[in-house]
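Input record (Table S2, row 342):
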Amino acid sequence: MSEASFYRQVLRPLLFRLDPEVAHKLGLWAVANGWVKATDSEPSLDAGKTLFGVKFAHPVGLAAGFDKDGVALDHWADLGFSFVEVGTVTRHPQPGNLPPRLFRLVNDRALINRMGFNNEGADACAQRLDDSDSTIPVGINIGKSKVTPIEEADQDYAYSFRLLAPRADYVVVNVSSPNTPGLRGLQDKEPLLKILSALKDIDTNTPLFVKVAPDLSEAALADVADVVQTLGLTGIVATNTTLSRPDLSSDPQQEGGLSGAPLTRLSDQVIAFLRRHCDAKTVLIGVGGIMSVDDAARKLELGADLLQVYTGWVYGGPKFVPELVRGLQLSGWSPSPSSDTA
Ligand SMILES: Cc1cc2nc3c(=O)[nH]c(=O)nc-3n(C[C@H](O)[C@H](O)[C@H](O)COP(=O)(O)O)c2cc1C
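Output record (flavin mononucleotide complex):
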């Protein structure tokens, strides 16, 4: 039995018997201790691409939310990822929403979460980054602390940005989580301009992205694209989880953000729209429902420059990323060869 089949036929059924958050913590703990590896060697930079001054061995990175505090920073390369996005990190440490707050929809190959930015805060994250020897690029995703009133959001983001930007290869301003009251309203033109220009005033060097929801109207997406280009931001991460419930067969349908297979089409539409509305130099990081090589290849064809996975990795296991990278090589992208042997 190959290692990929072992995960899917043996390990995953065992993990999926556990409460989803317990299984997540167990998985993260195993990665952080270096007990899970997918490749014989880390992604090689030989055939990679340089985007916004950063070299990527191939396009597949880990999406925000899996390693919120950067506890496993030095090990994501062992799993074949070419970059990792830590966070969401908030200025103040916070516990997030009350559990249960993470749900599996196995028949739909999906997850619903309402974690609510549980994290140890920006100061702890800065320390982790200082202690890290990550061999792959590290992005930091920042969000608004729950205790901070929405009208003071710009100062809250600015604190985290000032501290973390010098330690990151890129920073993402998360205004699209459905689990912090009022947060998604910050995607509107005026508040978004206020937050992002404040960050640009602090530091113009760190590549800056904004992460959008898949539930925005085309007019609202066009506004975000305008703001990004007006301020000369590096790009957009598209997309976060959706509040909509497209084509679900599972019950119960919990409150929170939906990710995985039912999100694929929505996220694809947003990427295609943004590619049409942004100039070629705006970098698009495509995320949302990448469950197969075809999903990954389609996002690249629609105009994504880089990709991220979360739910697909939970369902696919440690061999998921090397499989995607190998598949993308077949589809003609130009990532570096992986020495994975599965
Ligand atoms: C349990 C869970 C927690 C998440 N936490 C965050 C987060 O803290 N910040 C963020 O920007 N996105 C977060 N996300 C969203 C993912 O980064 C990603 O945008 C989304 O899940 C779509 O990708 P996927 O279908 O590959 O999972 C989270 C997703 C999940 C499933």
